[in-house]
Structures are given as structure tokens and as C-alpha cells.
């Protein structure tokens, strides 16, 4: 099992989770975070830190869509290990559902 970042993170990008990760397995996109499945040690400390409940065990990703997306972009984006401010409209965007098709950016973030 591994943890994956899901739709709720898109256009919010709260980073509370990255500071508690003991293995630094988060990677930063322009408006999304990804977890590298091969680096995640399944400790689960990141899950309760997410204010929008975007982090889920991969067992809650039955079709593997989020696991694949996290794996792909964790290879392309820079590592992030320190918290940063959330995106400006994070609170508003936290209430939007199904953001993958309409709000997801493939561009990398800045990392640490």
C-alpha cells in the first residue's frame, strides 16, 4: 500500500503534509502535490495533515487513476520538503469537485 494525492488537492496545494513526511516523498506541481509511490513507506502521517482530505491510501483508488498520476508527475516535478503558503484561492477551490479535467496543471512547481 502507498498513499496518493487526489482531486481535492488540485488548485489548493496545501503543503502541511510535506513537513511531516519522514522520507520526503512529495513532489510539487504548479497547483498539485504528488507522492512518489516507490518512496512512500505507508506510515500515514501525511493523511490527517491535509485540511481538504486529499491524501488517501491507494486502496481507495480502485481504478488506479490517482496512483498512476502521482507516479508520473513525481518523476517529472521537483521534490518539496517544506511547507509553503497554499494557493491564493485554496479555500474557495477546496469546495470544487472533479477538478482534474478543468483545473489540473502539468507544469512543475518550484520545489525547495
UniProtKB/TrEMBL annotation:
Essential cofactor(s): [4Fe-4S] cluster; [3Fe-4S] cluster
According to the entry, every stretch annotated as the 4Fe-4S ferredoxin-type domain falls at 1-30, 31-60
Q: Which SUPFAM superfamilies does this one have?
A: 4Fe-4S ferredoxins (SSF54862)
Q: Which GO terms describe its molecular function?
A: 3 iron, 4 sulfur cluster binding; 4 iron, 4 sulfur cluster binding; electron transfer activity; metal ion binding
Q: Which UniProt keywords apply?
A: 3Fe-4S, 4Fe-4S, Electron transport, Iron, Iron-sulfur, Metal-binding, Repeat, Transport
Q: Is Iron-sulfur there in the keyword field?
A: yes
Which purpose does this protein serve, as stated in its record? Ferredoxins are iron-sulfur proteins that transfer electrons in a wide variety of metabolic reactions.
Question: Which protein, by its recorded name, is this?
Answer: Ferredoxin
